[in-house]
Structure formats: C-alpha cells, structure tokens
Design a protein that fits this description.
By secondary structure, this protein is α+β, with helices and mostly antiparallel strands. It has one domain (50-283): Sortase, Chain: A (Beta Barrel), CATH 2.40.260. Helix content is 32%, strand content 23%. It has 3 helices and 8 strands, in the order αααββββββββ. An 8-stranded mixed β-barrel has the order 1-2-3-4-7-8-6-5. The radius of gyration is 30 Å and the shape is elongated. The N and C termini lie far apart (124 Å).
C-alpha cells in the first residue's frame, strides 16, 4: 500500500510584497499631494481674501482717524470742488482778459499746458503750506469716485510700512499735493487692499480728490500709459514723461498727479500709469 504524500502549497511572497510597498508609496504620495494642495489653497485664500480684508479695514480706520483729526469728512469734497468749478471758469475768463490787456498771466497762473485752468488753483497751492509729512505716516486722503476709492496717502513707498497696509504711497522727492511739479503715488493692484485695482478704467475727465489737513485739491485725469517698464523713472519726474514709450507724457512744467501700479494683474513685470492735472483747490 502506497503512502499518501501530502503536498504543502508554496506561497511566493516576493511579488505580492512589492505590490504592497508600491501601493503604500502611491498612497503616501497622494496624501502629500493633497496636503500641499490644501496648503497652497490656504495661501491663495490668505493672499487674495484675508490680506485684502485686513488692509481695507485698517485703511478705512486710518481715513476715519484723519477725518476726526481734521474735523470734517472728506465726503463733502466732491460737491464743494464741483461748486468751485464755476468759479474756476470765471477766473479763467479774468486771466484771459488780463492777457489781452497786456498783463502777465504767468505771474499768477501756470500755462495751459501745466494743467491748472484757473488763478485760484495756481495761487492757493502757494499760500497753503502743509508741514513735511513724517515717514511712513498717513497725512492725506485720496478719493476717486469713478472707481469707488477712498484711501489714505502715506509718505514713502515701503511695502511693509505703507503699501501692504492698503495705503497709497507718496514717492519721496516728488511734489506734495497742490505744489508745482508732480505729486506721484504708488499703490497695489492686487492683494493687500488693492486700492489701484481698477485705475485702468480711469479716463479723460475723471476726477481725483486729494484732501489734506489744510485743503482739498481736485485733479482731472487727462492721460494714461497702459504699460511701461518698471524702471521707467521718467513717469514720476517733475514734468512727467516716459523714458521708454516715446510721446507719452508732458513737455512743460505744471501741477501734475501720477498714479502708478503693477500690470498685468497678479504680476509686477510692468507699470500702469495714470496722469492728471490740478484743476482747483479749496482751503479747509
């Protein structure tokens, strides 16, 4: 009688073990990818939402603080400035009459090319003198009704101390509001309050109101430069004129305002420029 031999099955572990390790690696990689995606999503939310909310709230508080200090809200500026426009037109007529009679209108008012259309807007910037602003401190309010902007203006263009707070920064060594030359400003177009997000929508005739402790200045947009180099320093000179884009800018002294921001959106490769001229000034 034959003995019955039991066969013991042999299990090969190698291939199945390798598959298990591969599955664990894939699973681990997926977890890392999901984690990184969530982190990136949180960063995007922080940059595009939280920094905007935080900066806008801080900027609005600063505007309100300035208004309390000055004792009058800037919301009244457009109405008063518009009311002054009729007086400016009368002053223009007086200046033209003076020129025909042999008087020297340049003694009291800049040339037409300078952007100031009245004796009042030429004289008063010289009679109302504001103290030199402290570095990084807000000292003025910029209002642009066309795009719904009301934002503090601080001295300097530091990112951490000025621009990232949602403020607009005043370029050092450029003119102050109402002064002859170029009152040049910078602001973020995206994130951190993005006050200059929509300045590309500004066009000829749009009004810019700059309020300080001593006066409200009305500038009127009359030129834009859609894109220029970030190193185009000519756009903020006393007589602003692009060093890169021929024919863009001015050729004679005047009373100018310049707004600068990054373009295209969400990049800092180029600069978008908006220019305007002083039309009138109303003492506080």
């Amino acid at each position: 009688m034959r003995e019955r031999v039991e066969r013991v099955p042999v299990v090969v572990q190698g291939r199945r073990g390798r598959r298990g390790r591969a599955a664990r690696l894939v699973w681990g990689g997926a977890e890392v990818a999901v984690t990184c995606g969530l982190v990136l999503l949180l960063l995007v939310v922080h940059q595009l939402w939280w920094t905007n909310r935080q900066a806008r709230e801080g900027a609005e508080r600063q505007v309100q603080a300035l208004e309390r200090e000055w004792g009058s809200p800037s919301d009244s500026a457009p109405a008063d400035a518009d009311a002054d426009a009729d007086a400016d037109a009368d002053a223009d007529a007086d200046a033209d009459a003076g020129a025909e009679s042999g008087a020297d209108p340049a003694a009291e008012t800049p040339s037409r090319a300078s952007g100031s259309g009245s004796q009042k807007s030429a004289r008063r910037p010289h009679t109302v003198t504001a103290p030199t602003p402290d570095w990084d401190q807000a000292y003025a309010v910029l209002r642009i009704p066309r795009i719904g902007i009301r934002v503090p203006v601080a001295e300097g263009v530091s990112k951490s101390a000025v621009l990232n707070k949602g403020y607009v920064g005043h370029y050092p060594r450029t003119a102050q509001p109402g002064e002859g030359g170029n009152f040049a400003l910078a602001g973020h177009r995206n994130t951190h309050g993005e006050p200059f997000r929509r300045i590309d929508r500004l066009g000829d005739g749009d009004e810019l109101f700059v309020e300080t402790k001593s006066a409200v200045y009305t500038y009127v947009v009359d030129a834009t430069l859609g894109q220029t180099s970030a190193r185009d320093g000519g756009v903020i000179r006393p007589v602003p004129r692009s060093d890169v884009k021929a024919g863009h800018g001015y050729s004679s002294p005047g009373y100018y305002i310049t707004l600068t921001t990054c373009t295209p959106e969400y990049t800092s490769k180029y600069r978008l420029i908006v220019w305007g001229k002083l039309r009138s000034m109303r003492p506080r």
